[in-house]
Structure formats: structure tokens, C-alpha cells
């Protein structure tokens, strides 16, 4: 490889590296995948799984299944377990769905009867850019002012460390 190509590759890794750690792929249903729940007691298993996770914009869901399908639907279609015009449909067995906004997403199986037996899920995607609620004057007065000190979020620390490591690796290998 030429030096110019190596420098170009390093710059791509440095500037794009931070965005690589900002999203997560979640495998729906863990090892069982996207299946009809085995018993009536498990009819909320996907909503229970979803409540154990925190989803944000650009995260993806991986639906693994055989002889089935997955549809994103409206809240009304979710409640009825029927969708004549799904917002998203796939039946390829390895479906990846990317969250492009915050808010609620509703998923059901497209196979007749599967949704009624519990193969459905609601996901809440968090708006991580949301600003915290304003503080009252009393709360502000009780906290010491940190003038000139920047506070980093855990994700900011991870992103900074990732960029540092990639930069160091580029310097070593170029």
C-alpha cells in the first residue's frame, strides 16, 4: 500500500470511528429468535425483552426466523394484530430494521395467527439528544458552579478513547 492510501485510511478511521460506537444491533428474542411464544404465559415475552433494553436512533434490530415475517405497523394495527398496509415488511429470515427516529415502533408477525399468540412487540426508541428539564432556582443555588470545566458523558468518553486508539494504531502502522 502506498503511504497516501494509508494516511487516507487512517483519516477515515479517525473521523468515522466515533460513529461506529454510537449504535448497537439487538438480536430480537435472544437465542430463540423471532418465534411464536411457546405458551400463553409467554404472550408478552417480546415486550418484556424490549423493556430490558434501551434503544436509540440508529440502533438496529436483527430478526432471525424461519417461515415467518416481520412487519412494522401502526398502533391500531398492532392492537388488531392485522395490517393491510404495513410501514415495513420483510420475510427473508434475517431481517435488519434500523431506527431512524425516536418514539414508539410496533412490530407484528405477518403470518396469520402468530400475532394473536404473542408474536408482537412495542419498542420505545429514546431521544438521547433531549435536554434535561430546567432546574429550579433552589436546585441551581445548591450546586457548585463548574466554570470552565467540560463534563463528558460516558458515550463521549468511549468515542474519545476510540478515536485515540485508532489514531495511535494509524501512527504505528503507517
Automatic annotation (TrEMBL):
Pfam families: Cu_bind_like. It is found in: Cell membrane. It is a lipid-anchor; GPI-anchor. Residues 24-127 form the Phytocyanin domain. Keywords: Cell membrane, Disulfide bond, Glycoprotein, GPI-anchor, Lipoprotein, Membrane, Signal, Transmembrane, Transmembrane helix. The chain crosses the membrane at residues 152-173. One of its GO terms (cellular component) is plasma membrane. It comes from the Eukaryota. InterPro entries: Cupredoxin, ENL_dom, Phytocyanin-like, Phytocyanin_dom. Residues 1-23 form the signal peptide. Belongs to the early nodulin-like (ENODL) family. This is Phytocyanin domain-containing protein. It comes from Flemingia macrophylla. The lineage of its organism: Eukaryota, Viridiplantae, Streptophyta, Embryophyta, Tracheophyta.
